[in-house]
Amino acid sequence: MFPDDPVFLISMVVATLGRSxxxxxxxxxxxxxxxxxxxxxxVDQNADERLAPIVSxxxxxxxxxxxxxxxxxxxxARNLGASKATGTWLLFPDDDCxxxxxxxxxxxxxxxxxxxxxxxGRAVNAEGETIMGRFELSPSPIERENIWTTLIEWMxxxxxxxxxxxxxxxxxxGPGSGTPWGAYEVQDLALNLLSSGARGHYDPSLTGHHxxxxxxxxxxxxxxxxxxxxxxxxxxxxxxxxxFTDYLPHLLRPLAGIAVYTLTGRPALARRSREILAGRxxxxxxxxxxxxxx
Length: 294
What we know:
- The chain is α/β, with parallel strands linked by helices.
- It is 40% helix and 16% strand.
């Protein structure tokens, strides 16, 4: 049982739509943390009651707030959940991720050693292999130059007061936003955090697990997803004042991929590179130009 007026170290905001069984794995991993100093704020965007029995099953082992909303968008859901949080820190688990049993011990050890306002770790699959992008190999401050290799949404621990000062997530970015900019919302948030004076720290030993979707990347659906993600990258970089010369390598890499994969007879990967290039170019062109920082 939980005390009537608990004090939480962390509020975990879980935005969810269209999933049910996946939450069982997440909740099981949270229960395995063996602690009572965190709450789970489940922001349910489903129109049906599919999650009611799952919440009922876990509510005696986890402190769960079940929040319903009919507003689409993962960032809208995260902001709504954060507005109901009471913890000192916020964490935003994906509804299909899960965490190791020592997650909070690792977080506390890192945060006590390196004071900061937000921390991030690395995405790994069930075997412990790095997935979902490139990540720095060594601990480092999170800065404008390395936010592309030090951040993943569901491994971000951010002080709630800093999150509020930075204005939360931009709900025009991310899945379900209703815009073409389908990703890089955590980089956008981190840039706002840095602009507001917050300090960030990355440590690759802080890990969480996620299904490995690398094999889906070459499928038509996977290629389209990469286009949407690419548009988000272009939008965020231009919005925050990166120069076109900073952005150019992000265009040249998929352009090279088109050539290499076409010449080596890998049409699915060539198509994926074309979608990435198209998304990145359209995102850059559509974004409001920010103030360029030298």
